[in-house]
Amino acid sequence: MALTYDTLASYTVSGSSTTSVTFSSFSSSYTDLIIVAGSGGAKTNNDNTMLTLVFNNDTGSNYYSIQASGNGSAADVDGHFPETFMRIGRREYFRFYGNNTSAIINIMNYSNSSMIKQTLSTSSNPRYGVSWNSGLWNSTSAITSIKLQLTDSSFKFNDNTQFTLYGIKAA
Questions:
Q1: Which of 66, 70, 128, 156 shows its CA 20 to 30 Å from the CA of 77?
Q2: Alpha helices, H only, the chain
């Protein structure tokens, strides 16, 4: 089955006051979505700040995440549920040191109104390692908006942090 990737939206942080990025008003005609984030980071030294997602402005306790991470000498697995956001990577993995941190987020069946929404994501930080997440949003609503944010809003995304939303259409 051939897949077609289309760029639906893109945002590059400019300035020092951006605390979140929201994608909305995108087509529901795709099968899945992918968000690629990185190359700029977050201004934080706080290990408790992480990149998260909120769908359709739902801040209820409807998100579930399981994480696995490793750095070449240690590994860890943990689960988080229910929460008011979806975790994307471990806390320290979206802290940026230079311009080498990234996250790739896959959102399956986002427009299907008969399925609970699932995500798979990877994030990496050259100082800390790699993290893999599996997430679930306990809703059958079609996803019409996606907010990416840091858990501590006192921290901001660095200049030139890029977020791109892609639609995947199964052919």
A1: 156
A2: none
